[in-house]
Specification:
binds adenosine-5'-triphosphate, two-component regulatory system
Length: 449
Amino acid sequence: MTGILIVEDDASFATMLKGFLEKNGFKCDHAPSALAALKCLNKNKYEIVISDLKMPDYDGLDLLRDIKKNAYDCPVIIMTSYAHIKSAVKAMKMGAFEYIAKPINPDELLSIIKKALDRSKEKPNTNTTAPAKKVKTGFEFVPGKSEEFQKVMKHVDLVAATDMSVVILGESGTGKEYIARRIHEQSKRKDKAFVSIDCGALTEDLAASELFGHVKGAFTGAVNDKDGQFKIANGGTLFLDEIGNLSYEIQVKLLRVLQERKVRKLGGTSDSDVDVRLITATNEDLKTAASENKFREDLYHRINEFMINLPPLRERKKDIMVYAEYFLNKANEELERNIEGFSEDVVERFLGYSWPGNLRELKNVIRRSVLLETNELLSTENLPEVMFENADITETQPNQDLKSIASENEKKLIEKTLKEVKYNKSKAARILKIDRSTLYNKIRKYSLE
Ligand SMILES: Nc1ncnc2c1ncn2[C@@H]1O[C@H](COP(=O)(O)OP(=O)(O)OP(=O)(O)O)[C@@H](O)[C@H]1O
């Protein structure tokens, strides 16, 4: 039986969730707080942790950080409301396996648990507890068709043929790792390893051992010799995601490896040659970080022989429906559904929404909607409410004063929301966070009836 640890401060919801999972053949423990969860993790081995994000004092993100720090080797699934989607995206960057929106859809949860278990089975036994190494299978690269993405692809094609170090700059979820992998697969190193490390999920202690390896006895817990990822990637490509998170000391060591092309294990006395192409990703401006002495300038120049700027999804609107179609096909396959496409309203909302979590968010929204949809086409009914909260502000006309711009925007937002919910006024009022009588007054004021 698979052991699942449920971390949830809402006791009745936790009991319900536990009952549901046990009915489905899982053995569960419940921890009412993140601290209680750490105690359970110290005592027992779990295959999966399902944790609430928002808990008083010490929340799901703190717990996730500590799980990674202590190298408990189990995937963490974060439960969150759509209002906290940004924290969920942060959780993914910190190494969460997946997030699921509350109210929890039981089939969606079972599907994520199954994936987490499959992923754990795929993990090679590398004699390491490394939480940050991602094992990628079934890589399928879909190119966008916007001019912005075409430009990126041109740069990818050009740089792939060289051995230059590449920095990929872009918001979380824009596809930086996919671009890195694409460069590797088009390079002469394609038959060798592509190793991906998420530096954001590595603590300082783990980072050195993870990157460079260690010899037995180098520190408490180093019970065997271990090769670092530089050695494992030898001949191939090493992708360091969130490189800005590496400490100054690790940056110094990294620079030495890159300059001398030699790596020495922690506690070791000899060097071995390594031939690795380095691709790094960041969503912060490393140049500024370097000028503020937060990132070593010499390392910055060494890793930045070529820079690729991957724009956020909202700035390459022509790509949105390309990926939406792709993720729809994938979700149909995975969930054994047959949704044929998107309603016009959905397309309009997809194009108007700002997608703070970029492609990753688009994929999750579609997967969830596919699961919930009962019609042939995906409808706005099943889109998360947050997608209606940030409806785009209209462009302004010359000579408009603030008051008239505000009214104009208000009118447009109400009109758009009403359309999206098919004039269901209770729903519209809820989305707009106003009461029904205020909504009726505004509908009258703007003649929207
Ligand atoms: N070119 C692509 N083709 C198909 N799917 C893609 C592509 N790019 C991104 N994706 C999808 O979007 C998800 C996020 O992509 P990726 O992990 O590369 O983003 P990232 O920018 O590295 O994110 P982070 O900064 O959070 O690590 C992927 O899991 C994949 O499903």
